[in-house]
Structures
1.
Amino acid sequence: MTVNFHPDRPLADGRTVAEHLAADGVYRTQYETGISNGGLGGDRPRWEQRMFGDSGSRPVYGALNLAGHPDGAAPRFGSCHLELRSHCLDRATFSLGDSHTEPEILGTAGTFAAVWEGLRAQVTRTGNALGVSASSADAWVAALGAPRTRAGRTLDDYVEAQVHDGLTLSVDVAAVVADPAFRGTPYEGHLRALGVPLRWHGGFRLPAGELPDALRGPEAAALGRTIAARYGEPVLDAAVLGRAARDGEHPQLVKYLWHVLVIMGRPA
């Protein structure tokens, strides 16, 4: 399982996510931090009531990286990710699709058959699931085990994982995998201070002049060009977008720009 996050986003006290992780040694839920790279509040309590009943569970959200994508199972939610240790599977629940879609197919590590069959059915319909293409469901299963060095770019196609009872970095995290945009920055130092191995994936970089109006709308593309001009950074990456977020740019448009980088960005 992987938990994607942006290390440079500020929390209420002005410190960033990476600083809090290094200082606290735990990964806090969005209810505790007050920030989310998906949806915070709104209908989420109703989704959780539907999925978990009256347990009062407030899980950490991640995704199951069955394909072994180096950018994590759900890069939509952040440029870096934590790789969780296998024992965390025992206290995780899974859904085929994001919670906000109110998925009907749910499971646990011990009752995963419905999710697995849902993935196979998706391959039969579309020829692809979890960013892996195949001519048949059996061929897809065989292809899952292949080593991967290229980004999966699975913006919307993932098995969501809800990890219950918290995450302690020293116990539950095997490694942190970071975007190379943070090499040589203070954020690299904060990530190294987590006390787990640090690796790098390929990253996502895109010249601002190549931002398409059609992908996430002309407002997002225009903001990207403005950010590039303001900072003298003609090529956008995770660190440049994080700087814009910290400077108070429209959070939804910055989020859209990150989606564009995941879809179209080239490795560093």
2.
Amino acid sequence: MKRRIIVAVCLLLVGVLGAAGTVGYLAFGRPPTNPPTEACADDRTSDALPTVVAAGSSSTQGTLGADWVGALRERPEHRGYEFVNAGVNGDTSADLRQRVDTDIIVCRPTAVMILIGGNDVRDDIPLDQYRDNLGAIVDRIKSRTTARIALLSLPPLGEDLDAALNRRLGTYNTVIQQTATRAQVDYLPVHEQLADVFRQRVGDPAPYDFSFPLAFGAATQHYLFGRSWDEVARSGGRELHVDHVHLNDRGGAIITELAAQWLAS
């Protein structure tokens, strides 16, 4: 009897660890759909589809929360484009600056969308350093390609717009606007449209409380139990965030629409 219990417990542990490993890989470990390493090989032909590169961190990678790049790719009007997802979980502006040649320029893009800086805010990267990195990224793309460029403002972190963290995030968004103006590239008001949704909510927003266990729990609900990202957000009493950082499908749809309008302009 004791042996059967031990075997059952061992099997249960194996199952739990296997499920946890699967969730961890799907949310944090796997690459995005059509990353630069697959899409932008050296033998790309001159008659390849016009390429749109979306570059950034986890909010662009789209494996934890909404995949707005994938939603763009699936639109019928975009069948004539190739969408490359150059989002990397955890990246800061310094990380993207280091890989701008290998993940953006090598793709010979027709258009580039950049959403980077949320991790700079969370890591308290000095504003001047962020400005220098973002400017260098844009200048490098402009000097090596003829691509149209759009800089996307940063989504709020958490849903309390008056929180100190979001007031500080606003200074980074000012840098994004200033960089777009200086470099004569486009600016997409992601933050502004998401903030409008938060202002319409009834009741006080939950305070910012991001943690890895919370993110893992959100991923478990989605990948293990099949709940939509919108359902995950609602279960935590949030409008647009699954874990105070990453957007649900409703929030992702706002970015998708802004990006689609820009591509069509």
3.
Amino acid sequence: MNTIQLGQSDLHVTPICLGTMTFGEQVDEASAHAILDRSLARGINFIDTAEMYSVPARAETYGATETIIGNWLRKTPGARQKLVIATKVAGPSRGMPWVREGSGMTAADIVASCEASLKRLGVETIDLYQIHWPERNVPAFGTMYYDPAKERSQTPILAQLEAMATLVKQGKVRHIGLSNETPYGVHEFVRLAEQHGLPRVATVQNPYCLVNRVLENGLDETMHRLQVSLLAYSPLGFGLLTGKYDDSGIEGPAAPQGARIAKYETVRKQRWGRADALAAARRYNALAREHGLTPTRMALAWCYTQWQVASTIIGVTSLAQLEEDIEAWGTTLDAGLLEQIDRIRWEMRDPAV
């Protein structure tokens, strides 16, 4: 795999990124270390984590994923020098009081969270430091519409950028990014950075998969014109696009045991647990089989080859899943299959928005 430059930064990453939010909940430390070993051996130079991981978020596992990665880095000579490490500062609480006091995300919160992440990871510098979700009110995590009545912003974007600039100046962060962002947010972060000589966002990490293509409704143009790179997360629709729920559904005695979407009620209540999301996924999965592909291979190949995507974040719970996801790289989908994919999207839209 060739590497891709992220935005206007000097970061060059592989087009596959290892997501780690299962480490510390579904994946124990020894298994996580084995996955990290194999990922590095397969040539992946990019890993993504966050202060709030593992997921589903609990007070007991807050910061666990970064700690697991830090322990692995300390015992793996040369690994740090080969890797681009991305992590994230949590936005406003969203029902997680253990992350920080108060309901907002202040400039001081950004600095404190970064320093805590550096300590857990055991590194001197974070290569890409991202705001996990906006400080202001936005439609995200299953909310479809913007509602100005719910505005809660306490820390202007300029103040957030100034906090990031402090971290960059101190050498604690190399580049910055956003996550779960909107076109407005991307434009404002770039505009204010350029106006005030502050760090420019290199990336946006947003969901992008066959059952959620809302990025294509304007955000992709924004990012292309502003030279901000997409890190696509949930390319398998939280497992819906693997086919493992096609016969069983996502809950009940027949559902796969231990699967994240089947196991945790909070996940089922969000976008991935909707009945119409599963219905759409079943259509895509059947289409893949008709063309001699596994659902996983088709869904990943689609994401891997979209012009909008710089790097695709894969989240795995086993070495077998890691190998399957990497082996899908290089798969091309012919024009006829892509046309059929677009017809399903036209009919069923984006049910996992």
4.
Amino acid sequence: MESKLNHEAIEAYASTYSKRIIADFFIQHDKITGQQIVDLKGVKQVNLMVLKNLFQKWKKESDKWQSPYFNYENPEVKKALQAFMNTLSQHISVPKNHFEPLLKRAVEDTLLLIFSPYQFYSREINHVERTRLSIYDLKDTQRYIKVNKQLLEAFIKEFEQGEVKEMFNDEAFGVFNEVCEKLKATPEDFEPFLKQFNEVAKLSIEMIYFDCETDFEAEDYKKLNKPPLKETIAEAVAEQREVTQAPLHESLVANSKEGKNLLNTLEQKVVTGSIKKNISINQRFMFVKELFGGNNDAFNQAIDALDNLPSLQAAREYLNANCGASSWDTESEEVTEFMDLLEKKFA
């Protein structure tokens, strides 16, 4: 599901949410303190995300404290700086014009964390402002994460077991992907969070994804009236054939050094291998929750069985007999994505 997130709609919603919170709070206040951020109405994870981003900015500033004349690595200096930070954290004071972008970013981050935890953590790992990721960075982040935190906890555990203090971003991202493949967990139910967001500004699951129609009425949403990007190779091929009236693979073959059909090569990367290897972390969360009643063991057992069946028909029969698939809503996104994976497996 992560590839279908409508990031522009998320950004527009974050803007609307932030404006309403700020309009309500700053009627009576000139600045907002740390405790007021924690107690701000709305979604508590958003408030924690504000503090997370705020202290990351502070850390970025403090990292610049280098001098040829003073030893910042001295233990006494480090201790004094830590005491200074602790004192400063008790005296947060942010004016409206600086708080609004912090809040907007926090809403976007929280929506990602709820609806696409893989994307959220991927962005944290591949942060553009640093080249290395340390276990201290992860533990700092952990203090502020209360939703779908099992991925982060498993990632930190991987660092600790390997006695690793830091890695380059790309290396850390590889380890994170391995953690995602091994992790057995179910996502948190997003319905309670939708209710919390709706207390401030209207939000629905249909607004989060490209393939759902939306009735979002924020002013910023007017900018979003453009067709979604094509989600699959097949859609792109179909559109290209309509325009050119010629098979797309002919031009791909002509441009291939080895005369291979590049289209087939791309499709094979998507459909070959076991079903388990082709299921993303977000899809697994979705399938467990929506199709297997939150039972992660039942999901894993079914996938292992399906991977060893000889045909699509056998797979359908197994699902009907063992997983209650006959009662699944065939029009739902979850069923559509799951069956699409099966069809690719046995194609």
